């Protein structure tokens, strides 16, 4: 039999409604990561606009503090929006979340500066970031569960990896936008109005995303559970009283350590670090990040498809332990002062990160049954992200200031990779089993 015909027989193309639903699951992830990317890429400018200080390092530290605060509201968003998703359906909650994310991101671009509004300016920035944190907390559990439940057997890794690729594309868009603005505008223009443009772009992006999500179908897994009367009235209480679910939530806290630290160190913190500590130009820092993201987009898609064949466990453990081995040498290349060497080191680390990132979300979705999937997955994942991810730029910045060592990010990456790798060795392989009911 022709191999192409055989492949189509074994893995039929999803109907149009399912493709629309899958695309609908991606758009919120895109906007979430676009916002985080933009904030990181213009952090130096935001430091001047909202936290003026005679010491630039202090302004940057305050800016990353504002970046970190919302991540501690993510578990609240995960608990509330996850419970809603398990009670009323993934689609309805995803519509609420994308509305909150779009408005809070777009309104950042309309905020007054510290010079015109005083202390009210950074307070308003933090309040909007808190709303974003709530929405971001609800997005992973609902969005990635929605994708996994639409994917069907044998292609969950592939489908959920689309969301991971969307995060890279979102960050790449933010990087390119920031690079163009930085190169095209003078520093006074960037501080005066240029920084607003990437945030305002979230408004039309969000409207398009909202329309797409309204056209999407509800998750077939949830719809079937609803018909069969298997929807629980208290998903959060059930999740925290089940020994099996609690164990899964503990794994969801620790397993993404490298995923969280890698994302925030490599893509959010790195442009600012390269400029302030390594004395690259702002455009060079953004270009290195852009190249990492371009390579990573293809790598996460390949990793997701490969995990459907070889399993999640092998992909996660291998990627984490390879980072342990190459982390310090690659970081040396990154800090050597050469743009070419920095790019090589960054790309190699990005490939390791993609091997984990492309598989992580589908692995977490497969840990939990449908009736508590969004709340258990979201709460465990966001607790880990808040502790080890969102605070990473702040912790790393503070340690660099206190120790004077620019090697702090490398130690952070290698340590979290090692913990994640050993955790991956202890999980059960789920790639070849149906989703839990």
UniProtKB/TrEMBL annotation:
Transmembrane feature ranges: 21-49, 55-73, 93-111, 117-138, 159-181, 193-212, 249-270, 282-303, 315-334, 340-360, 381-401, 407-427
Domain of life: Bacteria
Record PROSITE patterns: MFS (PS50850), SUGAR_TRANSPORT_1 (PS00216), SUGAR_TRANSPORT_2 (PS00217)
GO terms of molecular function: symporter activity
Membrane-protein topology: Multi-pass membrane protein
Annotated SUPFAM superfamilies: MFS general substrate transporter
Cellular component terms (Gene Ontology): plasma membrane
Major place of residence: membrane
Localization, UniProt: Cell membrane
Start and end residues of each Major facilitator superfamily (MFS) profile domain: 21-433
Family: Belongs to the major facilitator superfamily. Metabolite:H+ Symporter (MHS) family (TC 2.A.1.6) family.
Protein name: MHS family proline/betaine transporter-like MFS transporter
Organism field: Saccharopolyspora phatthalungensis
């Amino acid at each position: 039999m022709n191999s192409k015909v055989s492949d189509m027989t074994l893995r039929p193309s999803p109907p149009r409604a399912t493709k629309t639903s899958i695309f609908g699951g991606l758009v919120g992830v895109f906007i979430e990561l676009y916002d985080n990317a933009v904030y990181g890429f213009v952090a130096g400018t935001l430091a001047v606009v909202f936290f003026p200080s005679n010491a630039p390092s202090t302004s940057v530290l305050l800016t990353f503090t504002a970046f970190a605060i919302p991540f501690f509201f993510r578990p609240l968003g995960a608990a509330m929006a996850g419970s809603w998703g398990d009670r009323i359906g993934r689609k309805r909650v995803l519509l609420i979340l994308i509305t909150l994310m779009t408005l809070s991101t777009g309104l950042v671009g309309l905020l007054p500066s510290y010079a015109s509004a005083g202390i009210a300016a950074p307070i308003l920035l933090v309040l909007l970031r808190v709303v974003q944190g709530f929405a971001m907390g609800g997005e992973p559990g609902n969005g990635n569960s929605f994708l996994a439940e639409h994917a069907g057997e044998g292609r969950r890794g592939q489908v959920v990896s689309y969301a991971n690729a969307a995060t890279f594309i979102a960050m790449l868009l933010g990087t390119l936008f920031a690079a163009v603005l930085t190169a095209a505008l003078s520093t006074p223009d960037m501080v005066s109005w240029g920084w607003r443009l990437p945030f305002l772009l979230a408004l039309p992006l969000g409207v398009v995303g909202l329309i797409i999500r309204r056209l999407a179908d509800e998750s077939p897994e949830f719809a079937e559970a609803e018909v069969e009367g298997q929807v629980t009235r208290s998903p959060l209480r059930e999740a925290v009283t089940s020994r099996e679910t609690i164990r899964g939530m503990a794994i969801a806290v620790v397993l993404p350590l490298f995923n969280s630290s890698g994302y925030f160190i490599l893509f959010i913190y790195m442009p600012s670090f390269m400029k302030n500590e390594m004395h690259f130009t702002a455009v060079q820092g953004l270009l290195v990040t852009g190249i990492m993201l371009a390579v990573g987009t293809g790598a996460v898609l390949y990793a997701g498809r490969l995990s459907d064949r070889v399993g999640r466990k092998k992909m996660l453990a291998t990627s984490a332990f390879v980072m342990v081995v190459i982390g310090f040498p690659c970081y040396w290349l990154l800090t050597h002062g050469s743009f070419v060497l920095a790019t090589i080191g960054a790309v190699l680390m990005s490939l390791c990160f993609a091997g984990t990132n492309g598989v992580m979300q589908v692995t977490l979705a497969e840990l939990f049954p449908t009736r508590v999937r969004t709340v258990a997955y979201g709460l465990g994942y966001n607790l880990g992200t808040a502790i080890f991810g969102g605070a990473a730029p702040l912790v790393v910045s503070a340690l660099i200031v206190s120790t004077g060592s620019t090697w702090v990010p490398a130690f952070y990456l290698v340590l979290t990779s090692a913990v994640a790798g050993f955790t991956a060795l202890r999980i059960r392989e789920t790639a070849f089993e149906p989703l839990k009911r």
